[in-house]
Amino acid sequence: MAMPLCINVDADGRLVSKGEYTGDCTGWILVTPADWAGSMTLTKLFEFPDPVMFGAVFTSMFGLILFLAAIATMVGSVAGFFDSVDIEQN
What we know:
The protein is α+β, with helices and mostly antiparallel strands and 90 residues long. The chain is built from two helices and three strands. The protein has helices at 33-45, 51-82; strands at residues 5-9, 15-20, 28-30. Strands 2-1-3 form a three-stranded antiparallel β-sheet, with no helix packed on it.
């Protein structure tokens, strides 16, 4: 696997490799297409979501929770009707 290279321009305008990339590279960095694709994937993963899409997902999930809570309340009411303690026992 090729590592990114640090590249500088010399006095004649030629690109000169300074070796593998380190944090003190003052020129350009050359990366392989695979490394570039991986970095773009990570960038897309951690970018802010689209506000409209985020709102739609949040609203639908919140609505689903409220709907399930209402169903659970109705099921509890029906189950409570059949679990009566007012039955006389002899």
